[in-house]
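Write out this protein's structure.
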Amino acid sequence: MISRDRVAAFVEHRRFQNFIISVIVFNAVTLGLETSTRILAEYGGLLHTLDYLALSIFVLELLAKFYAYRHRFFTDPWNVFDLLVVGIALVPATGPFAVLRALRVLRVLRLISVVPSMRKVVSGLLAAIPGMASIAALLALIIFVAGVMATKLFGGISAENFGDLGTSLFTLFQVMTGEAWPDIAKEIMEQAPMAWIFFVIYILVSSFAVLNLFIAVVVSGMEDQLRDDIREEEAKQTEAQAAANLEILGELRELRAEVARLREATAPHR
């Protein structure tokens, strides 16, 4: 029976990881080709076979990891992510579950868990979520205040855009994204020439200031993630250096003991 350590070493080997990356990319190509009606009509059977082959490889990989790590398999969030993504593809895509066939493309997201650089980026984004939640709450507060003001100021001028609070909130969200806001502002300014002040201040605060805050929080989270990675790497190097130093000290002790024995053996007897 193959030992768990050998299986773990196999699934963690760089060549095996590169093979899995290749299978994920190949599977992404086949899933993309299935969206073409002409290609699907001519090569549908082959594409489905290749898709099942890729899925089988992913299942075997997860089984090997589960065998190697046992309960430790679930302590790694990326293993759980892979399990969920592959598990969705195993659900029968017939009847009420037919919509799940479209979710097969989620298997491509496994590149995030396999490619270390992508994993670091996603970890940085996840670390920034608490700060992003605070900024999102601030943005929601700004949009709400602006929505109430716009409804009272412009509701009688443009009922279709600012007739009630819900409509105003949607219009202001559209303005924040920069979509067609000059047309909206121009319609208002025909009857309220000073309305540009409201729109300019709102866009500056909601789009530029808050967007920069989002970027700052994400960059800060990635910097923290990078700093943690550097600390881990330094810790590993320190442990490796300490192990090397201990090995050298052990060899020095053996050499000294050997020299001492040689001296005793060659010393003249008194």
